[in-house]
């Protein structure tokens, strides 16, 4: 044994001990996040545990997969955090809507819009949702949908676009559905590029920049047209657009740019997430015959061929369980990111200002500590009381920035599933082929979701 005294650990060594486990800083391994974020993050969690340190967009980052630590970020310490860097960059085309806004401005806007999602308005929205779903099914009959394959996601996008436009803006955008869908897809493509190093400059590339400007022009033109028409008519339709045009208690009103930002944010978020949730649900039902049988049995017992209504929502527990389980396995919002404004503690570690905190529904919703048979589609798990932590499931986020339209989305999902399921049944066009995953702002089926239909 050496007689020399052991040297005290260096500052660097002490810092290394204070850092959660994770891959070595730098190196090509980090490129995995940009190429395949779902598998990259899942691999980090499997390899290093529920609190992992790594690098993201030149920032120190941590991946958090422990529900109690997620609560610390989204609820307990929420005031110390803003949206993550990628979403901050999306302000270039989303503007300062609820999704991207921060601080007092966010609170003011949310307070102004909250009445649009109160219970009495939800009842009216529910009737509109079922009416538009019935119209969509009638178009399917006219097209004789049962004789050819179709893209289920595309059909759900058209339906949820119509629902958001009618309920929140009292508008019929059916003639604009295809160009709107293309413009939004282009924007989502740019969002994926924004995650890349140097992504904030992506709009400067001639071809990409031209497509971005074309998409923005289409969406801006539509939103500003709706605003101008409502201002000219001075009509109070009792919808979200009317609320946005009102002055608040201080006598201040929003200018057209602010209204456009809120309208665009809610239009995109309000239809895109629900369309994906519904598409994944039809896919899962088609692949799980016993769950599909129970789903149709509940609908037959309650509805017996009629369309559902708002009062049926509490009488459709299995249908709601089907939707909940679908959003567990394929969460439309697959990642929540926050960036620290100041230093903070999490567990036994201390992190500096600027640290990016990532919390992935894709990972936590399949965590074996909280879910038995986590990769199986088991709607019945939602019909029994569970003892899992509350934030083992957070498809709409949590805390003060939880999705403002959560109740709207649950109602829409259940009513649309019940209305369509009472009259239609679907199969995968290629049952043996598993659709790919496209994780952009939302989790889409890559290349659409080809299915075939038959009327019940």
Describe what you observe in this structure.
There is one protein chain. By secondary structure, the chain is of the alpha+beta class. It contains 17 helices and 12 strands. Helix 8 runs parallel beside helix 17 and helix 11 crosses helix 13. The chain is globular and about 65 Å long. The model has no long low-confidence stretch (mean pLDDT 88).
User: Structural class, from helix and strand content?
Assistant: alpha+beta
Number of helices: 17
The biggest beta sheet is recorded as: 5 strands, mixed
Helix content bin: 40-55%
The order of strands across the largest sheet is 1-2-8-5-3
Name the beta content range: 5-15%
* Overall spatial form: globular
Sequence stretches where pLDDT stays below 50 over 5 or more residues: none
- Kindly report how far apart the N and C termini lie: 83 Å
Describe the SSE topology:
Layout: H1 11-18, H2 31-35, H3 37-48, E1 51-56, E2 59-64, H4 67-76, E3 81-83, H5 85-89, H6 91-94, H7 103-113, H8 119-143, E4 150-151, H9 152-169, H10 177-194, H11 206-233, H12 240-245, H13 256-287, H14 289-302, H15 317-329, E5 336-340, E6 344-346, E7 349-351, E8 356-359, H16 361-364, H17 406-421, E9 424-428, E10 436-439, E11 443-446, E12 450-455
Parallel strand pairs: 2-8
Antiparallel strand pairs: 1-2, 3-5, 4-12, 5-8, 6-7, 9-12, 10-11
Helix pairs in contact: 8-9, 8-17, 9-13, 10-11, 11-13, 13-15, 13-17
